Amino acid sequence: MAPMQVLVVLAIIGIVLPSAALAAEFIVGDASGWTTNFDYKAWARHKVFTVGDKLVFKYPVGKHNVFKVNGTGFHHCIIPPANEAFTSGNDTITLLTPGKKGYICGVGKHCAKLGMKLAIKVVLPHHHH
């Protein structure tokens, strides 16, 4: 009897929870967090980032920050205006649109010299039928 009830519950969960509930949360850099001299290109290489997912940048407050940048800003480490910085040390950024996204640290030469930059490609969720 129990297995049938479990299946019914799972079916209900499947109907009630839209695909957005499957959104993933990525701790940028995993245990290392958002830091200098870390290979973010390698970190992101095999991950799939989907619209609705969240990036969490963890770092000691005041030591780093996070800026969203375009391709040019990413390649040349162009720091946007300071009022656009995320500075909480636990910044959660929800990926709302598909496409390429770039994030850099705007402190000192962290982006230009120490590799503190992350580029990802965000894709639309696949709906399973």
TrEMBL record:
Cited SUPFAM superfamilies: Cupredoxins
Membrane-protein topology: Single-pass type I membrane protein
Listed Gene3D superfamilies: Cupredoxins - blue copper proteins (2.60.40.420)
Signal peptide range in chain numbering: 1-23
Biological processes per GO annotation: response to symbiotic fungus
Domain Phytocyanin: 24-124
Entries under Pfam families matching the protein: Cu_bind_like (PF02298)
Molecular function as annotated in GO: electron transfer activity; metal ion binding
Swiss-Prot/TrEMBL keywords: Copper, Disulfide bond, Electron transport, Glycoprotein, Membrane, Metal-binding, Signal, Transmembrane, Transmembrane helix, Transport
GO cellular component: plasma membrane
InterPro entries: Cupredoxin, Phytocyanin-like, Phytocyanin_dom
Subcellular localization(s) per the UniProt record: Membrane
Main localisation: membrane
PANTHER family referenced in this protein's UniProt entry, alphabetically: BLUE COPPER PROTEIN, PHYTOCYANIN DOMAIN-CONTAINING PROTEIN
Protein name as annotated: Phytocyanin domain
Species for this entry: Dillenia turbinata
